[in-house]
Amino acid sequence: MKKTIFVISLTLAVAFVLGTAMAQSQTGRGGYDYGMGPGYNMGPGMMGGWVDVPAKLPAPNNAEWVQKLRDILTLEKQSL
Length: 80
Description:
This protein is mainly α. Helix content is 51%, strand content 0%. It is rod-shaped, with a radius of gyration of 25 Å.
């Protein structure tokens, strides 16, 4: 009886230690938080899919868009 209780408690202790060590070692998950999506740091909108971006994007027709894009480019250049 004592041997059975010892073996069961030892098995549970080893399983607990290994479980917490594996949960903490997973990159991008912070140990206990399993994230929002199936991949690392992906939100629920991506769901692990690939984004298809064309090689050449069409130029924007609206002058307001062009100005906003220039502002963003200026901010990015300043941040480097």
